[in-house]
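Tutorial, part two.
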Amino acid sequence: MPARIRFEQVAGVARVTLSHPKRHNAMSRTMWRDLRAVFERIQCLTELRCVLVAGDGAHFCAGGDISEYPGFRFEEASLREFHEQEVWGALSAMLACDVPIVAQIEGNCMGAGVEIASCCDIRLAGESARFGAPIAKLGFPMAPREAALVAREMGLATARQMLLEAAVFSAPDMLQRGFLSRVVADVDIRELTLASVQRICQMAPQAARLNKQTLRALSENPLPALVATAYAYADSPEQREGITAFLEKRLPSF
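Running the prediction step on this input gives:
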C-alpha cells in the first residue's frame, strides 16, 4: 500500500491516519505534505468538534522514511526546504488547528511520531508504546523548531536524554514525565480514545477553539536566528555515515 495520510469525517469528528504499514508508518515527504493539507482543510471545517490522530495498524509512527534521505539530506538548501517547508509546514498546520486533537498512540512513536504527537492536545497510549528520537545514531540533530516543540511538550530533561543518549522510553515513563495524559492496557487504548473524543464532542465547540487560541498564544516562541544556520551540517561526514550505515544495516563509525 502507498504511503499516505487518510482523512475520514464522521459527524463532528475527523480521523487522521498515518498510513505507511511497510515501514511502521514512517513519514515520507509526500505524507508530510499531505498532513499539512489535511490540517489546513480541518481548520476550515467549522462543523468539526474533535480530531483523532492514529497510526495504521500496530504502530503510531516509527519516524521518518530514511530510505528517502540520501536524495535530499546532503545539500543544505534541500535539507532546509525539507525541515522548514515540509515538516514544519505540517507541524505548524497542526499547531494552528483550533479543533481539539487527540492522539491514539500504539507501538512505536519515534522521531517524527514524537513531533506529531507533540502537536496534539491530549495524548493517550497503550502500555507497550515506545517513545524516542534516536537520530544521534544517524549523525544529525533535530531541527530547531522541531526540537523547541518537543522540549516544550515533554520537558528539557527528557528531550536531552532522547537527543543526546538516543534514549527510548516506555509509555509509563512518558506518563510520569508529563508527556502523556493516560496509559492503559493495549487492548483498551481504542476504547479510551473514543471516550475522550466523545467527551470533547459534548463540550462547547466555540469555547474549545478559543481555549486553543489562548494556549497557542502563550507558547509561541520564534527561532529565526537559530534557524538561519541550522542546516549547514548537510554535507557533514557524520550525517553521511549515519544514514549510509542505517541503510546498509551496519553500525555507524563516527
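The chain has one domain: 4-201. In part three we will examine how such features are distributed along the chain.
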